[in-house]
Amino acid sequence: MKTIPFFPYADLFKRDEAALTEVMMGVCRRGAYIQQQECRDFDANLAKFMGVKHAFGVANGTDAILIGLKAVGIGPGDEVILPSHTYIATAASVHLVGATPVLAECGPDHMLDAADVAKRITPRTKAIMPVQLNGRTCDMDALQAVADKHGLMIVEDAAQGLGTRFKGRCAGTFGKFGTISFYPAKLLGCFGDGGAIVTNDDEVAGRIALLKDHGRNAEGRVVAWGYNSRLDNMQAAVLDYKLKSYPKDIERRRAVAARYQAGLGDLPELTLPPAPDADKRHFDVYQNYELEADRRDELRAHLDSRGIKTIIQWAGTPVHQFKELGFTVQLPVTDKFFTRCMMLPMNVVVSDDELDYIVSAIRGFYGK
Q: What is the number of structural domains in the chain?
């Protein structure tokens, strides 16, 4: 029986082993480990790719959010509204700067629901944090309208959104800052932890530059309290190499999504993600292929018995269900969604034959 992993981590390296080995050996031969030319090159190339003025590599995606929040002045007494359908790091970053994460519902597209956000605004609300999930950008027109009406800033967790666009504009570039994750399974993954913060605001950029490197200015003098959150130079070299071919990876992800759509789109038991180009406002890059399924757990068991590995995002637990963290909010839409959601294999090395096998197994389960 064939086995199709949910994510083939080793293939991140194997598919381009010779070139990646040379990239890493070049760093090692020069002893260029911390904040060397590769970091500067990657920051510049990432900014160019996203069409933004400033990009800063940092140690991981969680640090990126935390530093961004500090840079825009969010702290004790403030509230930040974000979706419960996100990884704990989004809410934790708000908490760790002393602010309060306020959790909201997701809409039919699984993204932050602007109408629900509007209901949760209080005099303490400082910002709205859309999470650009699964390689899709939220409806930023709707969220910006809410923010403008109430005088709030937008800050973006675009950890899963590198290259996705809304009305031609990249995720991560709508707010005061945006963040990206380079965790190995992300759209552009390195071989460890990594992240980035992007902004078009010169003052915010200046504060980020200090905060990520011990509060040191360009002359190396400490002028503020800061963090040790520098993107490792080895990872920067890998990411800069992979960024050059990233548009081809996006093309492949969209082709995988189109094949799933063609094979499964007629099944009434499933609610699929929007197909590529289904909505001309959105350009989706499919970090994940998250669908809703009738008899979800039975379907997953059926697929597993045929060697097809699936997961439920966030281990099946939205943030508001972590009662140990003090959350008491009731989010029935999100609760229902998490009884139905699951993710199929979505990556750049899954073959068309494997996709057809997955489709056939799902159709067989539903008797089609």
A: 2
User: Distance (Å, rounded) from C-alpha 114 to C-alpha 345?
Assistant: 29
Residue 327 inside a domain? The answer is: yes
pTM: 0.96
Virtual torsion, Cα 246, 252, 258, 263, nearest 10 deg: -150
Nearest to 349 by CA among 1, 22, 6, 19: 6
pLDDT tens-digit map of 204-219: 999 999 999 999 999 9
Does the residue 1 lie in any domain? no
Q: Which residues fall within 8 angstroms of residue 15, CB to CB, at 6 or more apart?
A: 349
User: Rounded to whole angstroms, what are the CA distances from 21 to 14, 197, 299?
Assistant: 10, 27, 40
What's the half-sphere exposure (Cβ side, CA atoms, 13 Å) at 50?
Answer: 29
Residues 196 and 63: beta-carbon distance below 8 Å: no
Nearest to 60 by CA among 202, 198, 215, 231: 231
pLDDT in tens, 80-110: 999 999 999 999 999 999 999 999 999 999 9
Shared domain for 264 and 280, answered yes or no, is yes
